[in-house]
Amino acid sequence: MATSSLSKSFVIKTKTEAKNFVKLFTEQDKNPPLRDVNVIPVSKERLKELINASRK
Fold this sequence. Notes:
Layout (H helix, E strand, L loop, with lengths): L1 E3 L4 E3 L3 H13 L16 H12 L1
């Protein structure tokens, strides 16, 4: 079985690999959802200030 995504590809060759993949995939539902992250837009001027400050 082969599967792919935008960033990587891999091949599952054995029954053990398939079993482990399915196990990890089903256990993913048990993990708590990620918290929301606040995003604040930054002006181009402020962005330039931040970049230049990190270079000093």
